Amino acid sequence: MEPSHSPELMEHFSRPRNVGSLDRRSRRVGTGTATVADCGDVMRLQIEVDGRGRISRAKFKTFGCSAAIAAGSVTTEWLRGRNVQEAETFSADYVTERLSLPPDKQHSSRLAEDAVRQAVGDWKSRRCPCRHPAS
Amino acid sequence: MTPKLPIYLDYNATTPVDKRVLEAILPFFCEDFGNPTSHGHAFGWKAEAAVEVARQQVADLIGATPQEIVWTSGATESNNLAIKGACEMYRDRGRHVITCRTEHRAVLEVCAVMEQAGWQVTYLPVDETGWVEAEQVEAAITGQTVLISIMAANNETGVLSPMVEIGQVAKKHGVLLHTDATQAAGKIPLDVEAMGADLLSLSAHKLYGPKGCGCLYVRRRGPRVRLAAQVHGGGHERGLRSGTLNVPGIVGLGAAAEVARGDMPADAERLGALRDRLDTGIRAQLSDVHTNGHATRRLSNTLNLSFAYVEGEALKMKLSSLAVSSGSACRSESREPSHVLKAMGVSDALANAAIRFSLGRPTTEEDVDFAIEATVRAVRELRAISPLYELAREGIDPKRLE
User: Fold this and answer.
1) Cis before B223? omega within 30
2) Which of B43, B159, B185, B309 has the least C-beta neighbours within 10 A?
């Protein structure tokens, strides 16, 4: 184990939670794809929201370093069971603290925050009746 | 039986000291500890005799004469002495050096120092296999060219250079030729006459000798090459490299050279077969695997592979049961891919996901089979998490995301 990797990071890197995909065409699913321009990391994060605005499922896939993979795991764990309004307040600091990321790894936390914001935005846009008339 | 982990497959980085070499070295620590320059007593004579035996052993490995071997602290120092020493000595001939983009930092950074000192340096490009042509070298020669420095074999990819042809070009134009043979020594036959090399660097710890010892071959006849010393104080090594000789290291380098000369043909063949087993074993189970470096014109122990759709640091972490070299560590906001792979035109993403497997004398078939399994498992796990792999499976070019 490299010195900069906390046990929590190693746990979520070795056994990432909530890996996978949801049906991105579903109106109940919001998809966010965030990238770090400089290093090429990509995180796709998806939320499935039930009728009461509660996140019933959250899934992710990451192309990136161990911290970026662990970030997707702890972020989706955090999201599950929360309201969308809460999800909008999700901060990179949560990931940074939970995984004890050193400053040079914090682009992974920002990647997760960015992916959450995009996923929530995508879910909202799908609910807008002007773009997605109710069938 | 589970092998001892991690499995060492990084022999291009360094090698363990061969037991035969260690045995040769040991007496020179506590018993025969004399200083070879103590000409007045038996301790000095014994040490001097041992150093001269080693000089012959190393000379024999590269087809040189013992008087042409200058002891140094390693290949980095040898490269410094060769390039700075030749440039300084022959500055009246011109101010131009030719080298290659895929050289080791110990050559490139010395060349950068020469540039700062007002010299012009040509960094030759390589093709996508890492190959540099002798014609490119010849085309770069000007009336100002003093020195050509081209490595015999690349440390990252194992790709060889056409040294014989480059030597002919150098000779034809009366330009000195230095070769960094750190990786080649002990792995392929080297002959300074056949290569037309005027200067050659090598290091003990890459050929099962101890760390901290190397040498520079300096041609004495046709032409007699002179160098400006870079380390002064005592006039050791005919004034070329002052400093009390590292007798145990030198004895070790000599013994390592002799062992290598005997074992080389069998080692090269055995390691080549194991390297191919590793290569085909991985490819049989994984798609989108790219070989970095020429398929045949390379060292038989080296395999540099890139795995598409996975990230280098994560791959390295998943491969913690293997001691291998990877593209680069993920640090801060950017990754610096290997300058060697970059020069070959490998994309940043693939350069980052490169793994260098380098096999060595102790490597067994079990080691290789374990490495195949570990690599396949790691890449599969990461691809299962990778959104880029998913997109690629769906027929979407992930580059659109970048």
Assistant:
1) yes
2) B43
